[in-house]
Amino acid sequence: MSRLDTAVTTVDHRGPARATAGSPATGSAIRLQGVVKQYGTGTSAVMALRGIDLSLARGSFTAIMGPSGSGKSTFLHTAAGLDTPTSGSVWIGDTEISHLRATRLAKFRREHVGFVFQAYNLLPALSVEENVTLPLRLAGRGVDKPWRDRMIHSVGLDDLRGRRPAELSGGQQQRVAIARALITRPDAVFADEPTGALDSRAGKQVLDLLVQMTHELNQTVVMVTHDPMVAARAERVIFLADGALVGALEGATTQQIVDRMTGLGTW
Ligand SMILES: Nc1ncnc2c1ncn2[C@@H]1O[C@H](COP(=O)(O)OP(=O)(O)OP(=O)(O)O)[C@@H](O)[C@H]1O
């Protein structure tokens, strides 16, 4: 188990009203219990996660930071159901996903999890509108047109909805990816370095949107980043080192995050 489990077990600082939805056991949107992830076996085995206990409230915005190799990507992939833990349990909303077989897990992810990656991952042949609604079509669900229009409007792309990704700036493409992540009204959105490829102005717009969706849509956002300025936009920053949770800061400034990271070694 991680040393500071108790310090970061319940990440609910928004009061009881926000904790009512999600897992019936905890009221959380995402919950990890004793999550271990080991790559390889024998002498080549790597313990990437060493027993993570963590609960994230619905509507919370959490950044994950840690030195290179500390397990951030492994954490994100395991919490989001892109990979399965070696042992332990992961819940998203009411569903324990850690024991789902690959096909059911893929279906669950399509319907309940949104992703925003550094590389946007838009389909070049599809328009903005078609990219945004793609998860619904992949899930065999109809398009809720007012919701689609609200998502496209909320990311500021009303006038660009017919364009192809190649006709958009990086920031605009990332905003398409955010609308696409929200189109299924997911239980959680996972963002991996969402501003990593953007200049500071476009990056700020993307972060503004992530903050806005936690407030306006009560969305739960988990973001991995190397950048303390980016992490400072989250309500809470959780620190990983050597596969364990080693601390958390709430409402931290960039400097406070830098100081904590410096204490964890090279990053
Ligand atoms: N597929 C894999 N097979 C074997 N070891 C792996 C694999 N993926 C990651 N690891 C190891 O697990 C540990 C955690 O890696 P992870 O990529 O989660 O760290 P990270 O904090 O995201 O690193 P970075 O900041 O450099 O991207 C590292 O020691 C890494 O070498």
TrEMBL record:
Residue ranges of every copy of the ABC transporter domain listed in the record: 30-267
Superkingdom of this protein's organism: Bacteria
- Asked if the Swiss-Prot or TrEMBL record annotates the protein with the keyword ATP-binding, the reply is yes
Residue segments, region Disordered: 1-25
Keyword annotations: ATP-binding, Nucleotide-binding, Transport
Q: Please report the name of this protein according to its UniProt entry.
A: ABC transporter
